[in-house]
Amino acid sequence: MPPAPCAICETNRALILRPKNHQKLCKTCFINVFETEIHNTIISNKLFSRGEKVAIGASGGKDSTVLASVLKTLNERYDYGVKLMLLSIDEGIKGYRDDSLETVKRNAQQYDMPLTIVGYDELYGWTMDQVVEQVGKKGNCTYCGVFRRQALDRGAATLGVRHVVTGHNADDIAETVLMNLLRGDLPRLSRTTSIITSTPSASVSDDPNSHTNIKRSKPLKYAYEKEIVLYAHHKSLDYFSTECIYSPEAFRGSARALIKNLERVRPSAILDVVRSGEDMGKLVPGASNSCAGECGGKSQVLEEEVGGCGSSNSSALGGEMAALDKQFGHNEAAEMDVLETEIRLKPKSPGQENGRDISKELRRPKNSRSKNAPTIEKKSIRQVMGQCSRCGYLSSQAICKACMLLEGLNKNRPRTMVVGE
Predict the structure, then answer these.
(1) Could you give the 3-state DSSP secondary structure of residue 217?
(2) 3-class secondary-structure state, position 395
(3) What mean pLDDT comes out for the span 380-405?
(4) Is the backbone of residue 205 left (phi > 0), alpha (psi -120 to 50) or beta?
(5) Quick one: pLDDT at residue 342?
(6) What is the DSSP secondary structure assignment for residue 248, as one 8-state letter?
(7) How far is CA 196 from each of CA 46, 142, 147, 273, rounded to the nearest angstrom?
(8) pLDDT score recorded for residue 421
(9) Domain tRNA(Ile)-lysidine/2-thiocytidine synthase N-terminal spans what residues (predicted)?
């Protein structure tokens, strides 16, 4: 049987079967298609502005390494006019992060990009090894995730950078969608599925050096993890492939296993889950404000980890869902009136039975049968964004989650004995 030709150029021999759609491509066409898709994602979502400084969250892994390589290539090819640099976070995990940072240092030389490393130890006084020793291996990813996000923003603010790009791919987004569904946390979908998350500085802090107004974006949002690996392989990129030694206990691992099983049955399942998450996020009432003005809205009410731009229809869809909820409420009330009319009976004494007016009892809601029962009006609670009173970081609470976690760690930290005590 003769070798299959490339589906695009129809000249070279096909060497790659794309995981996304099972298209047979040669090496050159695959690389071009992959880079073009990333470029289209950047252009269609207007991720970059000419002249801005962009920090790449670099861990040394395949995702951030491919992101750095692709952005450097596309910036030169299409003249984005952005200044790229690498920003790494040292969580303090011996045998893992110290080795991966060596890869990042090599990448900085290979791509001719300046590198800045920010450590948990200098920011919080704790390394992840110390945190795990204190709290154990279960739940430690919560600490690392909260600290890492804040550390990236603080590192970017130190560099005077207002935009950080991360290597989150389609598999990561799909896993996050499933995790939020399994937790029943639909309001978070509008933020986690957004390709851009940012907070306008005017609504939180006017200080240009503040770390509360950092824009984040995900250029690899629609790229499959397997295709990222293929791109890194065929481009001979230098990356670190060892998994974090503390991550096997994470809840994300269960969602990842489910996504991989779905992908075996249906290759498009990953993007299907991502698109479904985007659509569900738009339908959540109040999601129209979560983009913090990125969609053109004028609302000043912000939610934590702002996002939800999705598409130009997100505002309308969010409003439609709220209107539908209201309409359903009216329909329910009308239906109850009809039912009351149907079941209303005439007592032996006109309007009375045992001294009670049955018609009033039937019309009265079950939860307010008592005459003295107060009327409780349910109101939806909206998170209003502000700053942490301790560290000044973006938070919807008086004290941000990072400071709360640190307070618990420091409270239980063994006291260091001083000579002479």
Answers:
(1) strand
(2) strand
(3) 76
(4) beta
(5) 46
(6) G
(7) 10, 22, 20, 18
(8) 45
(9) 53-243
